Amino acid sequence: xxxxxxxxxxxxxxxxxxxxxxxxxxxxxxxxxxxxxxxxxxxxxxxxxxxxxxxxxxxxxxxxxxxxxxxxxxxxxxxxxxxxxxxxxxxxxxxxxxxxxxxxxxxxxxxxxxxxxxxxxxxxxxxxxxxxxxxxxxxxxxxxxxxxxxxxxxxxxxxxxxxxxxxxxxxxxxxxxxxxxxxxxxxxxxxxxxxxxxxxxxxxxxxxxxxxxxxxxxxxxxxxxxxxxxxxxxxxxxxxxxxxxxxxxxxxxxxxxxxxxxxxxxx
Amino acid sequence: xxxxxxxxxxxxxxxxxxxxxxxxxxxxxxxxxxxxxxxxxxxxxxxxxxxxxxxxxxxxxxxxxxxxxxxxxxxxxxxxxxxxxxxxxxxxxxxxxxxxxxxxxxxxxxxxxxxxxxxxxxxxxxxxxxxxxxxxxxxxxxxxxxxxxxxxxxxxxxxxxxxxxxxxxxxxxxxxxxxxxxxxxxxxxxxxxxxxxxxxxxxxxxxxxxxxxxxxxxxxxxxxxxxxxxxxxxxxxxxxxxxxxxxxxxxxxxxxxxxxxxxxxxxxxxxxxxxxxxxxxxxxxxxxxxxxxxxxxxxxxxxxxxxxxxxxxxxxxxxxxxxxxxxxxxxxxxxxxxxxxxxxxxxxxxxxxxxxxxxxxxxxxxxxxxxxxxxxxxxxxxxxxxxxxxxxxxxxxxxxxxxxxxxxxxxxxxxxxxxxxxxxxxxxxxxxxxxxxxxxxxxxxxxxxxxxxxxxxxxxxxxxxxxxxxxxxxxxxxxxxxxxxxxxxxxxxxxxxxxxxxxxxxxxxxxxxxxxxxxxxxxxxxxxxxxxxxxxxxxxxxxxxxxxxxxxxxxxxxxxxxxxxxxxxxxxxxxxxxxxxxxx
Lengths: 267, 584
Ligand SMILES: Cc1cc2nc3c(=O)[nH]c(=O)nc-3n(C[C@H](O)[C@H](O)[C@H](O)COP(=O)(O)OP(=O)(O)OC[C@H]3O[C@@H](n4cnc5c(N)ncnc54)[C@H](O)[C@@H]3O)c2cc1C
Ligand code: SF4
Prior knowledge:
The structure holds two protein chains of two kinds. By secondary structure, chain A is mostly helical. Helices cover 44% and strands 0% of the residues of chain A. Chain B is built from eleven helices and 21 strands. In chain B, the strands form five sheets. In chain B, strands 1, 2, 8, 9, 10, 11 and 21 form a seven-stranded mixed β-sheet that branches. A six-stranded antiparallel β-sheet of chain B has the order 5-14-15-16-13-19. Chain B has a four-stranded mixed β-sheet with strand order 4-3-18-17, covered by helices on one side. Bound molecules: flavin-adenine dinucleotide and iron/sulfur cluster.
């Protein structure tokens, strides 16, 4: 299967051919092609210390910049990621209002979050005994697998694979290849806890999946979701606006261009 | 081994409003103070450019790190408690400034009725009106006695507000006028007036103009950026301990805040506290900070845990009703006292829902406390109904009418459509103490240092459910009048149980105050009856929960406690025995 191929980088090259050296990084992001390389600018970019001077670089090349960060940190199997793509798109589909989860960057957002401290429940209380027998546990004890021994990364992996397995069992196709109706049927059953999972309830996994999808759609773009602030534009949320003192009393709806934290912090 | 540190005049657990007020007053009076704060060193600079919903509202960057310490909870004495494992269910203060940094700034006073609830109930309705399971009691102090301290806190914290048409008497007006008025607030005000109620603007610690407080600290004017709740203010416009009381204490040169210092125990000889034992969480070393007076200002859970774990006072036993430490736990609970109400959806109106400030809004007090005649009602205490415009942020706000599915095409369409077309009003209701709602030490679970976690047991009584139902019905009436085309009205079921969420941070009890050691742990100066150089300050001393947000009342009692501490350092003894004149 094509899926067994080593994953490609953003320019279609196999991973092993990638060179993370500075020069190739520059080439890949198109900064060299744009002829804008300069020591100070480059140094600024890598440390995240963008100053006003190189704003135009980032803008000219904004899409390439995003693609560089669209590589998987957490998910190792491409198939898991394909299921994630399909599932998040069902939660927030593309329509006439604007992009869906995939175009908003949600799957990559989730991948990054699971690779970080949220994915391993770093600040959560993690001492035994766990209420692993979830039937016996108080059902109101907290959603999202709060009382599970599994961390969020594991819950996602098990959940996505279970959805795939369910699809193959019911429809003889992988989840990502199933029809829209079939995908919705499976997800509805997960939400209603009609599918048996080990270590966590299917409905709790689903709550996590939905929460993470909305986060990826509407977070600040710095996290890799809400690409180009398209999520905010759909919702007419203006982002990190400094002051509303001049609008606050007005009866008119304020249509404002959104501002990201990168713009807002301005350094 | 525990290393002893040189004695200071006062050692305080926690750098929130309570610890900050104690530190400011003690250092101004010439005493030297050490604050032990488990959280990180934070300054206003840390909150510049803070408008990041994911980091602060979804990853709870400023809240208690539950991996180090948490609580366990259960909703019936017959069950085993389970730990609160993640911050989706607990938003408690941490870091310099505590919860006072990431609060909204809603700044109510409580009612005269609250402080004398037992006698006023008996007087108006007779003894039989008090339910059997209730453990409500008078506080040993009246509103009039507390009023000067209310005034002091309001002036320190730049409170912006207008006179409540049916509120308790005030010695002075608010130091600042109310915040600007939005169309959303106007709509609520108009509707409640039309129904014959008495709306007024919620008093707030988001300053309506630049203001300098009596200690000389400046609080900037709010710009309505809508990143208040769960955030530190970007502009120094929300009164918090960092910019007010801690700053004042710093200026004296007599305060040290020691961060990353996790307090485990009060050291004592049974009669007198010697100091606090804490772990430096950056090295794991244990220290004992000696002091003449010891102040517990670590919020309800820490205060109660420290008393129980250090074996000070007699633990409350729900079976016998004996003992006092851990008694009368109350709070604003998510599925009962707040976050329920009526949500209206408007087809043709569009609101600037994304603008606002944490304490901005309007409310009615017609049903607060005992303002309504309870003769024919099956509950005591009441609710205030408010609309508050703290600013809807996009991850958290995806409300859709009940007939819309929770995800998929329809959901996307409606969650986007109604984002700026829905308004929510809520009744925040009181909660009265009962025999079976209390705190003790958990028999199973331990904190990161191996000490037992605090266990919280919460049973809702019939009257609490009846009160919540009445409040929601009122919201429905008002939302209809506001002209909503569609409504989601929450249903409070008769069998609603506590849902293990400690999200409101409005919690009380554990070391309650009173006029006598028979029914209280501390006197009205928050001084322990059993250990006179130990002050246990904050919501932990409140015998019950009102229908209002607590911080102004917590601040007022912190000022009174600080006065008691100074008096004790000068004269010793129980400072409540001969009541003090307020030195204005
Ligand atoms: C999101 C949010 C919004 C709120 N909005 C409002 C509002 O609008 N109006 C209102 O009236 N109230 C509001 N509150 C509640 C308000 O913040 C609290 O009532 C108030 O801050 C309590 O002050 P405190 O000093 O008693 O406790 P805290 O502010 O909790 O301070 C306690 C401090 O002690 C430290 N500490 C605890 N245990 C230990 C230990 N073992 N060792 C060392 N240090 C320790 C903590 O880290 C913390 O810094 C809100 C709370 C939250 C969380
Ligand atoms: S709304 Fe006002 S008080 Fe709140 S964070 Fe913004 S400027 Fe500060």
